[in-house]
Amino acid sequence: MKTICFYFQIHQPFRLKRYRFFNIGGDHYYYDDFSNEDIMQQVAETSYVPANRMLLDMIKNSEGRFKASISVSGIALEQMEIYAPEVIDGLKELAKTGCIEFLSETYAHSLVSLFDAESFRRQVNSHRKKIRELFDQEPKVFRNTELLYSDDIAELVYQMGYKGMLTEGAKRTLGWKSPNYLYESAAQPNLKLLLRNSRLSNDIAYHFSDYKWPGYPLTADKLINGIAATPKEENVFNLFMNYETFGRNQVVQSGIFEFMKVLPQFAEKNNISFSTPSQIFENYKPVDSISSTHPISWADEERDTSAWLGNILQQEASKKLYELAERVQLSQSRRIIQDWIYLQASDHFYYMGTKKSLPFSPYNSPYEAFNNYMNVLSDFKERVKAEFPSDIENEELNSLLETIHNQAAEIDRLEEKIGKLKNKNK
What we know:
Blueprint: E1 3-10, H1 33-61, E2 68-72, H2 74-83, H3 85-97, E3 100-102, H4 117-135, E4 141-143, H5 151-159, E5 164-168, H6 171-174, E6 182-185, E7 192-196, H7 198-205, H8 220-228, E8 236-242, H9 256-269, E9 273-274, H10 277-283, E10 289-290, H11 306-309, H12 312-322, H13 325-330, H14 334-342, H15 346-350, H16 366-387, H17 394-425
Parallel strand pairs: 1-2, 1-8, 1-9, 2-3, 4-5, 5-7, 6-10
Antiparallel strand pairs: 6-7
């Protein structure tokens, strides 16, 4: 039986204010609160809130047959708690239906999986805890920032106890293979992989209201009939996209909400179901393994990391940031740890990109984005050095890190035990 797996990404960064060279050492607050509040409230009103209602209607009208998955970055959740709590209320209502699976990811929507394994584990654990607290779900499936995936990342994810991962069906990785099957990681065969069908996903996310697109107009019956007409062996269709597709990238006047709401009706007529990632991992068997020695993502035509690390500005900024990782892990300062998380958001590096124009960037140029970020990072670095001077011996530093790591592992073990006891008593 063919099944459709929808996945929606929700993320908003803490945008930086204009931070001058002369602010370094005197101003330790880096964020543009006005912009962050304004953008979050706008996106909540036009997209997140109506999209939550849309999914809830689809679940109710289909009597629970419609299912989907959502991933929300930790820093987006923090902003919702401050500026748009109604979005979290809507997500909680969706969680209660049992038809929406919340996925795990990096707390800051960061590139940390490419740079520092220990910081990666910390971020993922923090995010998992946040999802557990807000939505009473224990994430079992991992979705890395921008669907970043490699054999090395797969090993890290498996070691953290996840049974599966989402990533891009990149041609340079798939070759002649179709993304419409369940796969497993070549590096870790016990980790199952769902690969995004980029053509079908982009038809909805980017082409839906484009009257110049050859496939325009995209209707629900056309999409479902196209899936039904695929070879019978192809049985998993992964449609992954940004939640802002609904109401923001594709405005309400385009008919995007009505399109989504009637999908379950046409799917049922064609004997096509909807599944969460966990359900697919339970009900389908992998047909082959996937290997990627170099990281892939769902960004741009290249499907690689060049959107964030493609030029010397981005590479220098990320290098300077993650040079601080070991010392920040020792910090007991809440403000330093918080700033460390916020400064890792991939958006900061994306704004430095020179491949194409960046319509969502708050800066006039990539160079302005780089200068602003590096000024902030310079101040942050001075604060970290003030707490842990550079003359601390590496041996002493490593010893402290080992102690902290052991303590963190014990805390994670106890939290997992508490979670199991709570579930047992329900």
